[in-house]
Amino acid sequence: MGARTPEAFVTRRPLAGAPSTRRTRYPHSVTAWPRRAKIAFVGSHGIRKTTAAYAFAHTNQRAGRSVEFGREVVRDNPLGINETATGEAQLWVLVSQVRQELELAPKAEVLVTDRGVVDNFAYYLRACGGTDRFSAEPLVRAWGATYDLVVRLTPDIALRADGIRSTSDAFRDEIEAILDEVLPRFVRPERLVTIPASQITDSFQWWPLAERLASVIGAPLLAEGVEGRRRSHARRADSTRPLPSPDQLGLDLAAGTRPDD
Fold this sequence. Notes:
Blueprint: H1 7-10, E1 37-42, H2 49-62, E2 67-70, H3 87-104, E3 110-114, H4 117-127, H5 137-144, E4 149-154, H6 169-186, E5 192-196, H7 207-217, H8 230-237, H9 246-249
Parallel strand pairs: 1-3, 1-4, 2-3, 4-5
Helix pairs in contact: 3-4, 4-6
């Protein structure tokens, strides 16, 4: 999706079911946190990253925080995707990921990204035959340090055809093997959270992860004027209500995106 204006998130009406607030406008030029936060949901494909990232964004909005969402840029790649993607095609994805984050990060207190530089680097290495043809590693290493948290979803669910991403288990396994090797190099252990994809269901409780992100920033999760406690969110997470839709979040889900991305 195109870059959203700051007002797209910071001046929204309260979400249905959200805690009551005495204010719903958050000036984009001032953040209530000491600094802005960034969290990336990473992994191979078909592992519910998009579902997880949207649900986490929704949780932060309910806590009164302004949120921007970085969608998966590979779907806009004009050079090809999946097993036949070239090194140049994956370099385009890698650079586009950085550009998107640069554009979105200043617009809200929390930037949630569907992918990050580290998992895109894994696809790039695979496309380059295991070599860093364009010397991208220094950029990946430096940019990887800009994430406050990285959530890796692991593939314990079957691939589903969506008409876009590959359904080859061998291809996904190759990417996972590369991730096993590169993630420890670029993400500090205390910043890495690992969740099996099968756990990303309607009942998954995102509140503890949101609190963990806030603790990295050194500030409370709940924004000033937002009433609510963790137990109320846990109760909602245990309900049978489905995960929020993109419309409820005020986000644009790109055409062709599927829940298991």
